[in-house]
Design a protein that fits this description.
One of its GO terms (biological process) is regulation of nitrogen utilization. Keywords: Hydrolase, Magnesium, Multifunctional enzyme, Nucleotidyltransferase, Repeat, Transferase. It catalyses: [protein-PII]-uridylyl-L-tyrosine + H2O = [protein-PII]-L-tyrosine + UMP + H(+); [protein-PII]-L-tyrosine + UTP = [protein-PII]-uridylyl-L-tyrosine + diphosphate. This protein is of the alpha+beta class and 950 residues long. It has 5 domains: 202 residues, Beta Polymerase, domain 2 (2-Layer Sandwich); 159 residues, Four Helix Bundle (Hemerythrin (Met), subunit A); 178 residues, Orthogonal Bundle (Hypothetical protein af1432); 45 residues, no CATH class; 110 residues, Alpha-Beta Plaits. The protein has 41 helices and 17 strands. The protein has a 6-stranded mixed beta sheet with strand order 16-12-13-15-14-17, with helices on one face. Strands 3-2-1-4 form a 4-stranded mixed beta sheet, with helices on both faces. Strands 8-9-11-10 form a 4-stranded antiparallel beta sheet, with helices on both faces. α29 packs across α32 and α37 packs parallel to α39. The radius of gyration is 34 Å and the shape is globular. It starts with 20 loop residues before the first helix and ends in a 6-residue tail after the last strand.
Length: 950
C-alpha cells in the first residue's frame, strides 16, 4: 500500500509575516539533499534549522502582538507556525528517512492546539491516527517526529491509535472524548481523519449531547471550586480560574457537541446567541489570549497565574495608562474582571438555551438534568414569576418590559421563596438591563424592594451577588457600578472592591444569625442590641463605594451615602448614621492597630470622634466585617483582642467611668489582685515579685499572664539565669507567644526583632516591659504557622534558639539577617513612597513618629537601632504590616523625658529614618504634622516600655 505523503496537505500561506512557507520547505529540502547519502546524519542540521525557524517565528508573533494587541491573532500565528514545523518534519521523515514504507498515517492536533490556538508555553497535543495495527514504519515515523519536537524543547502530549480505538476509548473517557471533539487535520492521510470525524459524530455526538453537557458543567464547577469559586481573586488564573480561558473552552465544547456545529459563530444563526453576545465572546477570547500570551512571553514558560509582578508588566505591554484614582495596572485588572464577568453572562445565556433543548430529554440522565424535572407552578403574590422545574423563572418574555420594577422584584421573590434562578430568567435580565434608567432608580417600590433584599434575614449576600453578576446592581446603583471589577494593587486585598463589599454583607448576616459566636464573642452579643440594623447593612454595603477616586474614599463615600440613603427611603437620622460610619470606617481599625491603647489620650481622642455608645457598637461591627472580608488569613484573634480592648476602654469613658485621675487606684487594684493570685507564695517573696512590676504592665497585661510571667521570673532567678525564654501557643488568637527575660539594654528591641526576622518569624505583637530590677520582660507574638501544637512548639524552639544565640553573642545579627536575605531578588512589584510623620498632638506625654514604607527583612531592627542612635527613648510602639506595606508607630521622648519640639531636630530624625527605609522611589515624603495621621487598616504590633519610675 502506497503511503500518503505529507504534502497531501495543501500548502498554507496563512501568515507569511512570520514564516515564508516556500522558503521553509526549500530549506528542509536543501538539508536533505546535502546529506543525500545518509539522511539520518542530517538530523542535527534539521533540528537546528527547526529551532531557528521556531524562535524567529515566535519572536515575530510577539512583535505583532505588541503592535496590534490581538491575543487570538498571536495564538493562531503560533499554532500555524507549529503546523508548518510538523508538516515539514513529517514530510522529511516519510520522503527522505523512511521513504520505503508501505502504509499511511494521519497527524491531527487535539486539545487547545486542535482549536488552532497556542500560547507560547502551551503543550503540543497530537493524535497520530493509524489505519490498523501499528507497523514498524509508522512507529519509526512517529518517534522521529516526537524526538524532533522534544529536542526542540517543546512539551508534547501525544497518542497513537486507530479509529476504532479512538471511538472505544471516547465512549468511556470524557477527557478523550473532548480531545477528539477538537480534532484538527494537520497532514498525512485525509481518509483517516474523515473516518474518525464521521464515526465520532454518528456513534457518540448524535446521541449523547445531554450526557456530555452535564459532564462538562460538573467538571467546570469542580474546577471553580478548586480555584476559590470566585472570579474576583486579585491574582487570578487566566486559564483555569472562573471566567478564564477554560470557561470559554467549556462553552466551545458544549456548543460544538450539543448543537453539532464547527464554529461558535454558528450559534448566532441558530438563535442561541445574539450578534452582540457573539461579539462579546470574541472580545473576551481575544483579550484573555492577549493576556496569556504576554504572560508566557514575559516569563518564558507556561505561567497562567496573573501574579502582581506580571500584572504590571502585562498592563504596560497592553498600553494601559494611569488615571486619577486608578493606576494603569488597576485599570487593566478592572478590564480583566469585567471580561471574566462577561464570560459568566455568556455561560448563563448558553445554559438557558441548552435547558430549552434538554426539556425533552429523558429524566434522570444526570443529577444536573434530574433537578429540572418538576412542573412549572405559580408563586403566591408574584403573578409575573413562576417556579419552573425547581427554580424561579419569568411568567412571560414581556415581564420586565411591562414593569421594569420586576428587575428588582425578581431577586426579592427568589429571596422570599428560597429559590435559585432559572438560567432563562437571568438571560432575560441580562438582555433587559437597558430598562434600568433614572425612573427605575428613583422608583419608591424598587428601592423598598432593594432595601428588603439587602437587609434580608436569609442570605442577602447570595442575592446581591446574583444581582451583581447579572449587571442589575451596578445599573441600579451607578456608584456601585463604578467599583464593579475594580481591584486594588496590593498584597493586602484579596478580592475586587465589589466582591469585598458583598462578602462583608454576607459576614454581617452570619454574625447576626449567631453563626460566628466562637470567632466574635463580643459583637455576637452587641449586634442584638443595635437599634438600626438597616443603617448598619447599608453602611457595610457602601463603605468602599468611592474607591478609585482622587478624593479620600471615606470622605467621598460619605457624600455618596447622603445621596443614596434618601433614595432608599431612609430617614435623615439613618442617613447621617450611614454617612458617619462610612466616613469613620477605618478609624477604629487604625486606632486599635497603630496607637498605644494604654495612652489615655488615645482613648480620649477616639471617644471624642465616636461620641455615643450606639455609634461605637456599629463602628466596631463594621470594622470587624470589613477586615474579615478582605480575604482569608487577614483576620485573626489578636486583631479581635485589640478591638475589644479599644471598645471596652472607650465604652467606660463614654459612660463616664474612665479618667486619668483613677490611674493610681487602678494600678493598686491590679497589684492587689496579683498578690491575691500568688497567695500560696511566701509573703516576703510574694511582695518582692509583686512590686517589681510597673504601672503600664499591671494595667495592660491580663492577670492570668501576670501570674505566669511572675512564676517564670522567679524560676529564672532561682536558677540564676541571666537569659531565659518561655513559649506558649495560642490557637484562638492564631499566634505563638515567646517570652524573653534578659538584662535591659537600649537596643534590646532591635536585637529581638532582628533575631525574629532572621528566624523567619513574622511578629504580630510584642510587649516589652522593664522590671524594677532593671531587667526586660519581653513577650513576642509571632504568626502561627502550624495547626498542630507539637509542630508549632518545635518551630518556636528554633526561634527562641536564634534569639538566645544573638542575645548571648554566639551569632552576629547582621550575619544571620544577611544569610536569610542572600540570593533574594529585590521586589520591584510594589512601589510605596517612604513616609515619615512626626506629631506632638497624638499623646500628652510623647512625640509620635509614624513610618510608612515597603516591608523588608530586618527593617524593624534597623529602625529601632536608628532611634537609639538618635538618643530617643521608645516608650511604646506599634509595628504594623498589611501586605507589602509596613507602618511603624513609635511613642518617644528625648533622654530627659521631654517631647521633641524643635523643627530642626524633627527634620534630622525624619532624614535619618528615611536613609534606612527601602528606596523604591527616589523622592519619599517627609511630613511634620501637628494632627492625626490618615487612618489606615493594617495588622498591628504593640511594644510597651514603661517610664523609669514605678
Amino acid at each position: 500500500m502506497q503511503h500518503t505523503p505529507a504534502l497531501a496537505a495543501k500548502p498554507d500561506m496563512g501568515y507569511p509575516e512570520i514564516l515564508n512557507v516556500e522558503e521553509f520547505a526549500a530549506g528542509v529540502r536543501a538539508i536533505a539533499e546535502s546529506h543525500n547519502a545518509d539522511p539520518v546524519s542530517a538530523r542535527a542540521t534539521l533540528l537546528a534549522y527547526f529551532r531557528l525557524v521556531n524562535q524567529q517565528g515566535r519572536q515575530k508573533a510577539h512583535d505583532i502582538l505588541n503592535a496590534d494587541g490581538s491575543g487570538m491573532g498571536c495564538a493562531r500565528r503560533i499554532s500555524w507556525l507549529q503546523d508548518q514545523i510538523l508538516l515539514q518534519a513529517y514530510d522529511y521523515a516519510t520522503r527522505y528517512v523512511f521513504a520505503s514504507g508501505a502504509t499511511s498515517l494521519c497527524i491531527t492536533a487535539v486539545g487547545g492546539y486542535g482549536r488552532a490556538t497556542l500560547a507560547p508555553g502551551s503543550d503540543i497535543d497530537l493524535l497520530f491516527l493509524l489505519p490498523g495495527k501499528q507497523t514498524e514504519w509508522s512507529q519509526k515515523v512517529v518517534e522521529f517526529i516526537l524526538y524532533i519536537l522534544w529536542d526542540m524543547g517543546q512539551k508534547v502530549g501525544h497518542a497513537t491509535r486507530t479509529v476504532d480505538e479512538c471511538i472505544k476509548l471516547s465512549k468511556s473517557d470524557m477527557t478523550i472524548r473532548t480531545a477528539i471533539l477538537e480534532t484538527r487535520y494537520i497532514c498525512g492521510s485525509t481518509v483517516l481523519e474523515q473516518e474518525l470525524l464521521t464515526r465520532f459524530d454518528n456513534e457518540l455526538v448524535k446521541t449523547t449531547g445531554p450526557e456530555f453537557v452535564a459532564a462538562k458543567l460538573a467538571e467546570r464547577d469542580e474546577r471553580h471550586q478548586r480555584s476559590g469559586n470566585t472570579r474576583y481573586l486579585v491574582e487570578p488564573n487566566v486559564k483555569e480560574g472562573k471566567g478564564g480561558i477554560r470557561d470559554l473552552h467549556t462553552l466551545f465544547w458544549i456548543t460544538k457537541y450539543f448543537y453539532r456545529v464547527r464554529d461558535t459563530a454558528d450559534l448566532v444563526r441558530l438563535g442561541v446567541l445574539s450578534k452582540a453576545e457573539y461579539r462579546t465572546f470574541e472580545k473576551a477570547e481575544d483579550f484573555l489570549w492577549a493576556v496569556r500570551c504576554h504572560m508566557h512571553f514575559n516569563t518564558g514558560k507556561a505561567e497562567d497565574r496573573l501574579s502582581f509582578d506580571l500584572q504590571r508588566e502585562v498592563a504596560e505591554a497592553l498600553g494601559y495608562q494611569s488615571r486619577p484614582g486608578l493606576s494603569a495596572v488597576e485599570r487593566f485588572m478592572k478590564h480583566y474582571f469585567l471580561i471574566a464577568k462577561n464570560t459568566g453572562d455568556l455561560t448563563r445565556i448558553l445554559c438557558a438555551a441548552l435547558e430549552d433543548q434538554q426539556a425533552k430529554a429523558q429524566p434522570g440522565l444526570t443529577n444536573v438534568l434530574s433537578r429540572f424535572a418538576n412542573r412549572r407552578r405559580k408563586i403566591a403574590g408574584a403573578a409575573d414569576f413562576v417556579e419552573d422545574k425547581g427554580r424561579l423563572d419569568v411568567a412571560s418574555a414581556e415581564v420586565f418590559r411591562r414593569d421594569p420594577v420586576n428587575l428588582i422584584r425578581l431577586f426579592h421573590v427568589a429571596d422570599l421563596n428560597g429559590l435559585e434562578f432559572h438560567p432563562d430568567a437571568l438571560k432575560n435580565v441580562t438582555r433587559s438591563l437597558h430598562l434600568i434608567d433614572d425612573a427605575l432608580r428613583t422608583d419608591e417600590e424598587a428601592n423598598r424592594l432593594f432595601l428588603a433584599i439587602l437587609t434580608s434575614r436569609r442570605d442577602p449576600s447570595l442575592m446581591l451577588r446574583r444581582m451583581n453578576e447579572s449587571g442589575v446592581l451596578g445599573r441600579f446603583i451607578p456608584e456601585f457600578g463604578k467599583i464593579v471589577s475594580m481591584m486594588q494593587f496590593s498584597m493586602y486585598h484579596h478580592y475586587t472592591v465589589d466582591e469585598h463589599l458583598i462578602r462583608a454583607v454576607g459576614i454581617l448576616s452570619s454574625i447576626e444569625k449567631g453563626q460566628e459566636t466562637d470567632s466574635h464573642p463580643l459583637i455576637d452579643g452587641l449586634i442584638k442590641t443595635i437599634e438600626d440594623r438597616e443603617a448598619l447593612y447599608v453602611a457595610v454595603l457602601l463603605h468602599d463605594i468611592a474607591k478609585g477616586r482622587p478624593e479620600d474614599h471615606s470622605v467621598a463615600g460619605a457624600k455618596v451615602a447622603r445621596k443614596l440613603c434618601p433614595r432608599f427611603g431612609m430617614t435623615p437620622k439613618q442617613t447621617e448614621m450611614v454617612a458617619w460610619l462610612i466616613d469613620e470606617h477605618l478609624t477604629m481599625s487604625m486606632v486599635a492597630q497603630t496607637r498605644d491603647l494604654n495612652d489615655w489620650k488615645t482613648i480620649s481622642d477616639f471617644a471624642g470622634r465616636v461620641q455615643s455608645l450606639e455609634r461605637l457598637k456599629m463602628l466596631l461591627i463594621l470594622t470587624v466585617v470589613d477586615i474579615r472580608a478582605v480575604g482569608p488569613g487577614v483576620w485573626n484573634g489578636w486583631k479581635g483582642q485589640l478591638l475589644r480592648i479599644l471598645y471596652y476602654e472607650t465604652e467606660l469613658l463614654l459612660a463616664g467611668g474612665f479618667s486619668e485621675a483613677t490611674r493610681t487606684e487602678r494600678v493598686q487594684n491590679a497589684r492587689d489582685k496579683l498578690s491575691e493570685a500568688l497567695a500560696d507564695w511566701p509573703e516576703a517573696e510574694r511582695n518582692t515579685y509583686v512590686r517589681m512590676h510597673y504601672a503600664p504592665y499591671l494595667l495592660s497585661v491580663p492577670l492570668e499572664d501576670q501570674v505566669r510571667h511572675t512564676a517564670f521570673i522567679r524560676e529564672a532567678d532561682r536558677e540564676n539565669k541571666a537569659l531565659a525564654t518561655m513559649v506558649r501557643t495560642d490557637s484562638f488568637h492564631a499566634i505563638t507567644e515567646i517570652t524573653v527575660f534578659a538584662p535591659d539594654h537600649p537596643r534590646l528591641l532591635a536585637v529581638i526583632a532582628g533575631a525574629c526576622a532572621a528566624a523567619g518569624a513574622n511578629i504580630v505583637n510584642a510587649q516589652i516591659f522593664t522590671t524594677a530590677s532593671g531587667r526586660a520582660l519581653d513577650t513576642i507574638h509571632v504568626s502561627r504557622q502550624f495547626k498542630n501544637d507539637d509542630d508549632e512548639l518545635r518551630r518556636a524552639g528554633t526561634i527562641t534558639k536564634m534569639i538566645e544565640d544573638v542575645l548571648s553573642g554566639k551569632r552576629r545579627l547582621p550575619d544571620v539577617i544577611a544569610t536569610r536575605t542572600k540570593g533574594k531578588k529585590k521586589d520591584k512589584t510594589f512601589v510605596i513612597t517612604p513616609s515619615v510623620t512626626i506629631s506632638n498632638m497624638l499623646s500628652n506625654r510623647f512625640t509620635v513618629i509614624e513610618i510608612e514604607c515597603l516591608d523588608r527583612p530586618g527593617l524593624l531592627s534597623d529602625i529601632t537601632s536608628m532611634l537609639a542612635d538618635l538618643s530617643l527613648d521608645i516608650a511604646s510602639a506599634r509595628i504594623t504590616t498589611f501586605g507589602e506595606k509596613v507602618i511603624d508607630t513609635f511613642y518617644v521622648t528625648d533622654l530627659t523625658g521631654e517631647k521633641i519640639t524643635t523643627e530642626n531636630r524633627q527634620a534630622l530624625i525624619a532624614a535619618r529614618l528615611k536613609a534606612i527605609m527601602p528606596d523604591e522611589e527616589e523622592a519619599g515624603k517627609t511630613r511634620v504634622a501637628p494632627g492625626v495621621v490618615t487612618p489606615l487598616a493594617p495588622k498591628g504590633v504593640l511594644v510597651k516600655k514603661p517610664a523609669a519610675n514605678p
